[in-house]
Amino acid sequence: MNKRQSRIFAIVATGIAAVAFVGLTLHSHTRFDELTNAQDITPEVTAGKDVWHKYNCINCHTLFGEGAYYAPDLTKIAQHRGEAYLKAYMRDPSKFYDEQRHRRLMPTQNLSEVEIDNLITFLDWVSKVDNQGWPPRPIMVTGGAVNVAAQGTDKALTQSQDVRPVSPDNDPRALGEHLFRSATPVCTACHSLQPGVQLAGPSMAGMAQRAATTIASPDYAGTATDVEGYIRESIVAPSAHLVPGDMFSAAGVSFMPNTYAEALTEEQVDQLVAFLATMK
């Protein structure tokens, strides 16, 4: 290829790339309203965005992968944690950490109740934007990471000696393990399978032993009579018995979503129970 041919090739290639870029940009703009649910942008959502900027949340957190990487990406946090948890957390983050063990770095911002409500409304809107799976990276949480990109695969997210191996076939325990990593809201967003790794909810390592101890306790407020029954109750009626401490409940209501009874079939709940009962 001589100089003239090289010049022509470069000009044509640049022109084609420019046309493709402009075309894709215009196409994106035609879909922004649909992808972002623009019709749901209420005054409260806008006010919540203002709160996000007022307190410089982006200095530590990211949305859609954009921002600082000092703290967790919050793109889907409203779906992963829920309103009750987020409200209690924003009021006083110190209740969710052991200062000596976890070195809490989230400051107490002293937000007003209106600011908290608006910020949660904003984060809820953000969580429903169709971001086509971006960013495809782990959501970092205290003590470990939840690999969102791995959810839905047949490979376990975590390995622990406290987790009894289950069959990859049609064993209910194996199906329950898959549900643990793929149900909505996803269980791994709040619960670890590693002993000692406590996220928004308690670690599932040793779940069966703790369940037996809880049922035998005079402080138990639920109706279960065995380990499997307690695990089932924790899934479908999480506020039946509240684990002591401010980390897991507020005003007598568990932070655990109460939607699994409707979102899961009886068979799926049985599968989850079968899997969690292996956590000796």
TrEMBL record:
InterPro entries: Cyt_c-like_dom, Cyt_c-like_dom_sf, Cytochrome_c550/c551-like. GO terms for molecular function: electron transfer activity; heme binding; metal ion binding. Residues 43-127, 171-280 form the Cytochrome c domain. It comes from the Bacteria. The chain crosses the membrane at residues 7-26. Keywords: Electron transport, Heme, Iron, Membrane, Metal-binding, Transmembrane, Transmembrane helix, Transport. This is Cytochrome c.
